[in-house]
Fold:
Amino acid sequence: RLATKRLPPGSMGLPVIGQSLSLLKAMKANTGDEWFQDRIRKYGPISKLSLFGTPSIFLHGQAANKFIYTCDGNKLANNQPKSISRLMGERSIIELSGEDHKRIRAALVSFLKPEVLKQYVGKLDEEIRHHLDMHWHGKQEVKVGPLMKTLTFNIICSLIFGIERGERRDLLVGLFQELIAGVLAIPVNLPFTQFNRSLQANAKIKAIVMDLIREKRAAFEQQGASPHQDLITCLLSMRDEDNSSVLSDEEILDNAKIVMIAGHDTTSILLTVMVRLFANDPSVYEAVSQVWAFSMTQMDETIFPNPSKFDPKRFEQQVPAPPYSFVAFGGGPRICPGYEFVKIETLAMVHYLVTRFTWKLSCKDDSFSREPLPVFNQGLPIQITPKESSGALQSRALRGDRI
Ligand code: HEM
Structure:
């Protein structure tokens, strides 16, 4: 009873179900924000509830964010449901804490930091141009949501796994979709359940990636391939003081998978939302295309070789958000390590879009539901018109050539 007295206000709802169904319903209808606001009105910024069979505490606000992101790992630790570890692997960064988390994180950041990412701008650029040639040029209407997903999957596939376009990449797209579907599925492993299909997909992904690790190791050790070719080669080339591998093969597998998942769905949504914003607010499109057309912009001069074409100042002069109020990328020791990568990928794609096309929405419904990531209800179809004259010229600018 003493323990109960110290708990914050709030109801635990029905046994097992708790508030899960009500929250999932609100997210599906994209009224999740209202759902949380209602809670805050009813119980204040800290309340108890039960989600997905687990007693939970809901925290809201800047102070709460600060508490979570600066809290000692012994007091507050990441704790994924068992079903997630079965799908994502027990050695993935999201499962680990303490020294193991630090070691894996340092390995991933060594690949995702700006000085290293600049080596991949060429690959990224090539993927984007290929994607536009295949799916945008020559079309009058395109569905932005699914296309952005294809693009970001292909980019991350090439960077993480170093897999060229072709059969193996196509196979992985389907397998990863099946794997991701299992994350929110009821974790019952019977022949007809989604969870079972996701586990099967996971086993196939494991076989493909383990083959890939063997191939990459042979290429690196016997044929002198560069350790910077892709994330897998980079991770397996890492050695500690006594020359043993920093990461086991299982750790390389689990973390390549997690980066693959964390790295493509999120960015595809960001890009889709940006296209919708530009269509709904022509002044934003106008401002952005002016920046790209005449001064060129880029955030980080370590990434692009010719910074004179980019004007970061106009972005930097904005008043920064107060600490722990903007947490789209999390914070503290687990802050998203893909942040720099997202910036480059988004800037590159938006650059091509605004220099090659104008567009308007061709659907009445441009809303999305959350599953839990946003999914546009109609896929966000848009009508596109090419800007013939400027495309080729502007494209060269991204690769650093002088116009
Ligand atoms: C718009 C795009 C993205 C958003 C909004 C986003 C957001 C986030 C958030 C909120 C977290 C959790 C932080 C926490 O637990 O406190 C996270 C973690 C993570 N993200 Fe991202 N992310 C994005 C893109 C990416 C990309 C492109 C990559 C990789 C290339 C990536 C890799 C990761 C990894 C590996 C973690 C786990 C970090 C850890 O546990 O230490 N993310 N991200």
